[in-house]
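Appendix C: a fully annotated inverse folding record. The material below is reproduced so that readers can follow the format used throughout the book. The structure is listed first as tokens, followed by the designed sequence.
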């Protein structure tokens, strides 16, 4: 019976295509590609003369029945522009439909921005939470990040270069100034892996170019120890207020030492002010 092959392609360096992927792409009857122009460049590099059709989010509704019909008479390979199909693209719909119709679905593993970034991040990656692309709007980003404040597993997300600084600011305000690895243009000529804190990343990146993968340190405390962390932050703020410290410096220090978000620490600062006024 014909099969659907899920073929991972390079995330940057074209030499990262596996030998098995090269063979399968040469043998299948049809290749469904996210962007035929990108895939044609890869096929040309390896002298593969496969028949190409486009399959992406804008034509998936129309193309899906055509691909299922094509499977009745021959093997089909599914590829994305980079990495493994089915992750953040409509490939998962084709996989589900093909499996439901009884066709074998065969994965060909290969390059992945997720595992590559985790491996090079220098952060604990025994367990991690994959967030996909962060929401474009700030409110949606903070709603996504807020419940993850006490998540102890490492977080991983994709981000566009023109939204990086906004995302970093929201991460700092919501999750606190924790460690982060910003992986840019992985496996490409201008590959860069920045390791530091979120605040340091904000200082480092002005207007970056290229694709970005963020690996963010998990929360430092247990889910139920928030009261203890707030108590520690409150004590730091009370002392800072007594010393006449500027609010900016006092909040920054409490964020750094407790791992609480800037939003939470600023709320505590206001509460300590109210308490002091009440005492007077």
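Designed amino acids, in order:
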């Amino acid at each position: 019976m014909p099969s659907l092959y899920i073929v991972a392609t390079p995330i940057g360096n074209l030499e990262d295509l596996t030998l098995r992927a090269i063979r399968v792409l040469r043998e299948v009857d049809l290749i469904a590609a996210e962007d035929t122009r990108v895939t044609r460049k890869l096929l040309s590099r390896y002298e593969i003369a496969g028949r190409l059709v486009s399959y992406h989010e804008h034509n998936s509704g129309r193309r899906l029945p055509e691909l299922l019909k094509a499977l009745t008479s021959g093997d089909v390979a599914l590829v994305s522009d980079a990495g493994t199909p089915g992750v953040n693209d409509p490939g998962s719909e084709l996989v589900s439909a093909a499996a439901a119709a009884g066709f074998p679905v065969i994965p060909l593993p290969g390059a992945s921005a997720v595992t590559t970034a985790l491996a090079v991040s220098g952060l604990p990656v025994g367990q991690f939470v994959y967030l996909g692309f962060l929401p474009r709007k700030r409110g949606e980003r903070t709603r996504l990040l807020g419940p993850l404040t006490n998540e102890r597993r490492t977080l991983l997300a994709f981000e566009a270069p023109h939204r990086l600084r906004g995302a970093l600011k929201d991460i700092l305000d919501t999750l606190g100034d924790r460690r982060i690895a910003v992986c840019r243009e992985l496996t490409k000529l201008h590959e860069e892996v920045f390791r530091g804190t979120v605040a340091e990343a904000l200082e480092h990146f002005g207007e970056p170019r290229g694709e970005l993968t963020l690996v963010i340190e998990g929360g430092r405390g247990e889910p139920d120890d928030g009261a203890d962390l707030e108590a520690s932050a409150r004590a730091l703020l009370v002392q800072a207020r007594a010393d006449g410290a500027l609010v900016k410096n006092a909040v920054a220090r409490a964020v750094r030492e407790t791992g609480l978000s800037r939003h939470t620490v600023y709320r505590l600062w206001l509460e300590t002010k109210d308490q002091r006024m009440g005492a007077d």
